[in-house]
Design a protein that fits this description.
- This is YhcH/YjgK/YiaL family protein.
- It comes from Mucilaginibacter antarcticus.
- InterPro entries: NanQ/TabA/YiaL (IPR004375), NanQ/TabA/YiaL_sf (IPR037012).
- The structure is a single chain.
- With 150 residues, this protein is mainly beta.
- It has one domain: Sandwich (Jelly Rolls), CATH 2.60.120.370.
- Helix content is 9%, strand content 51%.
- The chain contains two helices and twelve strands; from the N terminus they run E-H-E-E-H-E-E-E-E-E-E-E-E-E.
- The strands form three sheets. Strands 1-10-5-12-3-2 form a six-stranded antiparallel sheet, with helices on one face. It has a three-stranded antiparallel sheet with strand order 4-8-7, with no helix packed on it.
- The protein is globular and about 40 Å long.
């Protein structure tokens, strides 16, 4: 997992062949103007824009998730979001087996760590990062860049 600001995104280009494409899109787009929905940026890079109410910690534990086929770059556009995190290797209780079609798996475990993300910051979740997003109050406008692993 990585937490940083979009102004520092260039330092992460080398981590994956599509990170440069993803971060150049993020830094070259008026994120506040994006409509809710899905945007295909390039082969292996898509953006999911949402504007949903934050949830209480207890409500997010049923969505303690990880992915096998995609890396998530989650960016807060407006609002204040708290996220939970735990290494996948330390999770023991599967709530829902992996769905290849939807690329997610859910755990019953609880996060080890909670952290806050605000406007202009991003978090990169790799497949080994189990995360509980959307903890907060009020509307949280955010986007999730799905970067395919292959």
């Amino acid at each position: 997992m990585i937490i940083d600001t979009l102004t520092s995104a260039e330092r992460y280009y080398g981590l994956h062949r599509n990170f440069k494409t993803a971060f150049e899109y993020l830094n070259g787009t008026d994120l506040a103007a994006l409509e809710v929905g899905v945007i295909k940026v390039a082969d292996g890079v898509k953006v999911i824009v949402s504007n949903d109410p934050g949830r209480k910690v207890e409500e997010t534990l049923d969505r303690f998730e990880c992915h096998n086929q995609n890396i998530d770059i989650q960016v807060v556009i407006h609002g204040h979001e708290t996220m939970g995190w735990k290494p996948r290797k330390d999770c023991n209780s599967i709530a829902q087996e992996y769905s290849e079609e939807k690329d997610y798996m859910f755990y019953n475990d609880k996060p080890d760590t909670y952290f806050s993300v605000k406007d202009g910051q991003f978090v990169i979740f790799f497949p080994e990062d189990v995360h509980a997003p959307m903890i907060g109050e009020g509307l949280i406008k955010k986007l999730v860049v799905k970067v395919r692993m292959d």
